[in-house]
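Worked example

This section walks through a single chain of length 71. The input is the sequence exactly as stored; nothing has been trimmed or padded.
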Amino acid sequence: YAPAFGGFCAMGAALGKKLDGDPAYWRIVDGKLYLNVGAPAQKRWLEDIPGNLTKANANWPQIRGKAPKEL
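Given that input, the structure is written out below as tokens.
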């Protein structure tokens, strides 16, 4: 699997940020691999995966081409 959101943290994408994904914190949802930056981010991600995916997918086109420090 190639990670979604370019390997950046899925919860970060839901928040409009690009945070490094950690391969120790992952989930496969509907055939896609999502990484999180750490345990707290993954806990928050798991609380509302459908809602967080909706936010992350809406934010990703705007943040995709930006450097993490620009956000």
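What to look for: The first strand starts at residue 22 and ends at 29.
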